[in-house]
Amino acid sequence: MTEIAIIGAGLAGLNCALTLEGAGVDVTLIEAADAPGGRIRTDIVEGFRLDRGFQVMLTRYPEAERAFDYEALKLRPLRPGALVRHDERFHRFADPFREPLAAMRFALDNVIPLQDKLRVAKLRSYVMAGETADIFAHPENTTMKFLQEFGFSAAILERFFIPFFGGVFLERELGTSSRFFEFLFRMFASGQTAVPENGMEELPRQLAAQLKAGTLLTHAKVRRITRSNRQFAIETDTKGIIEAAILVLAVAEHDCIPLLSGLAAKSKFLPKPRKWNQTTTFYYAAESSPVDEPIIVLNGEGAQAGPINNLAVMSRVSSQYAPPGAELIAASVVEQAPDSDEGMALLEREVRDHAARWFGRTANNWRVIGGYPIQYALPFAKATQWQSGPVRPVEDGIYLCGDAQETPSINGALKSGRRVAEALLVRTGARTPRNRADFDASPSL
Asked: What is the pLDDT of residue 434?
């Protein structure tokens, strides 16, 4: 029998397990897939590294700084700013605080009104003031309303904020919480946007490598959970029955609700189904790169111009993403995730046609090597005047963790796992491990 069983080895489950093990608690981490990572996985296809959906990490995430060894990850940064496609050409949106020379040229480009450029600097000063936690006490609205009330024009909303943060939130209406937007803007402004040299799966892989031998069980799909005499019996398809005194579900609501059937059906803390934002990423192999730098390319012409929201040449970010002599291009669509081969084929043709309008006939020679429709990509962080409070069990002995419990981000997943673990350490009377923050109930959105 194990003291605590955690179902789901994404970042939340991994960080929860590591925090508990660091305090000497006996933990079993159960994962249905062949490897840990949850939504953060990387496939190797013909020598190319394909992240399951376009993903990046913000290096100033507080929880990431706490959890990861950045040097060992060999992080490769994207160039600050973006190339914005508008009026049939590309415009560089530069960060004046990091690339002053490029920003001087950007200042002369009328794709964005001068007053909006000045407001971006004002916004940066606003979100950088004080402590990060102060953001979570700001008045909350949708991101779109926040930006409009800040004074930004329709031009910069349509040409930068909607495609850039639409690609971050995976929704173009920018209905996401303004507090989360302010937090992210601060993270972008103060740190780098990067990927590990060998793909995003290096993040969960690094955490999993720190677990004790035997803690992580893969290929172990949970069939049923029962409870008797205050103990849980977790029936798996390949690892038999695992008994535990405490249960942590580190999976999304649509996966954990069936598992909780009969265990916590009447609990007021039972998670409710929520909206999830969708995305699809197509990967293309090419002989030459349409963009000669590691920078994100944005569709500043609107969804009516074509389905691509953002594009990046991943082999220019890290050479390990493609075999020698080849380039890897990631083109992402938001708010769409076809559930059929026919739908994927149709969307891919539309993406390729859109790319050809950007880069010319060379796009016709790109070879599609992967497509990832992700229906449950990110939980929608709507503006609700929400504040996270103390970690509470769904039912006595049953806890939830994951980015849906905090913020839809790597930071949120890591923080949720840590906070649940620290709540359990308080419950069990175990000592909080050194170099880990004390159990807290600080707001996260």
From this structure: 42
